[in-house]
Structure formats: C-alpha cells, structure tokens
C-alpha cells in the first residue's frame, strides 16, 4: 500500500479527526477516545499520553522505552505485515477483528492476528489505563459501588485482582471486565484478551475495564522476578477516571 492510497489517506484523516476532537475533551474522555483509535491497517505506534519517565518510580523510564518503543512497535509491525496479505481484513476495526478470529480460515494468519493484533490492542489499552501517580484519582462513585457489590470492598477487589495477576503462569494479562452487567476478574495467556470470542473461554469474555500486563518485559528490568512488587506498585498509576469512563460506557 502506498502512502497516497485511498485507504491510507482515510486512515490518516480519521486519526487526525480523532486527535483534534480528543484535544477538546477532559482527561477521562480523551483516554476513552484514544483507546478506540485503532481503526484499520496500516497501524502506527500511538504516542504515549505521558512522558517515558512520568510513571516513575512505579514503572521506570527504561522499561517504558523498551516496552512501548520495541515490544509494542513489534506487535504493530507484525500485524501490518500479516494484514498486507489479507486486505479484506485490513479495514476492519481491530476490536471487531479480534472478536471474529474464528472466521479467519487460514490458521497461520489467524494465529498472527491473535498474537500481534491482540498485542497491539492490549498495549494501546494498557497505556490508556495508566497515568502519572498524581493523576491516578479514585474510582467513580458508581464504579466503587459496583466493585463493593462484587468484591466486598475496593481493597478486596485489589487483592483478588493481584492474586489473578500473580497466578498467571508465564506471560499474560489480568483483567477486570464487565460481563452481562456484572464485574468479573479474569486472566488470559499471552496476548489473548476478553474480546476474543471463540478463542478464550466464554467465562472470560466481556468488556475490558482494566488490564494488567504481567509479561516479564513489563517489569523485569526494575523488579526482576518480583512480580508481586510490580503489581502492588502498579495500583499507584492506574488511571481511575479512564477506567470509570469505560465502566460508564459499558453500562450504557
Ligand atoms: Mn507488554
């Protein structure tokens, strides 16, 4: 695809329009708009909504540079390479593509879309889920009430979520999802996520509200093998206004 092709121009215009609209929105709504940004190939690495050092001391600058600039970028490169051979899938919004993976008949392509399409979506979501510690805030009253209804207390929720993240063997994610009007903690391996119908168990499907990357690349430079320390620190940089906006949108 050349830079002047109609699809590429449209993609550029869409991103430009989104960026212009997002600049007018308050922080939480801006995060929600940015999280919906992946609209079609070729995908580009989204700029972080904060500086590389802005999440310190909880996530260090060197980890952010490699995680965003190398790992996330590689998922996008591999996703674009796969979609170059499947133009009928390239214009499908990424979340829709991930929700319909079993309809992709070619196993190699399906696996690449699962791993690298999932990798792009998950990391875009992850960056929007985080914010500098001074801006972390609190769950909205509605979200706090829902958390207390499902997990007794916010502290009880954090404990259960942390256990799911700690127990995920190898690489993967912990999630808070909205599922049929209720909140649920789930976990997925590799770059699978709760959107992937027909891939992850039905019990783990839902609307992601919060996601925690527990791949070693997310924490090893600073925390080495101490995943629980990374998880405990991570709560200090959760963007609760953004998570609360997702919850409000999921409730409709
Ligand atoms: Mn990662």
Please, could you describe this protein's structure?
Mean pLDDT is 89; it is low at 1-35. This protein has 252 residues and is mainly alpha-helical. It has eleven helices and three strands, in the order ααααααααβββααα. Helix content is 52%, strand content 9%. Strand 1 (172-179) and strand 2 form a beta hairpin. The protein is globular and about 45 Å long. The chain has two domains: 7-35 and 60-132, Fe,Mn superoxide dismutase (SOD) domain (Helix Hairpins), CATH 1.10.287.990; 134-251, minor pseudopilin epsh fold, CATH 3.55.40.20. It has helices at 6-22, 27-35, 61-84, 87-90, 94-99, 107-129, 141-151, 154-167, 220-223, 227-234, 240-251; strands at residues 172-179, 182-189, 207-213. Helix 2 runs antiparallel to helix 6, helix 3 packs antiparallel against helix 6 (107-129) and helix 7 crosses helix 8 (154-167). It has a three-stranded antiparallel β-sheet. Residues 67, 71, 123, 213, 215, 217-218 line the site of manganese (II) ion (MN).
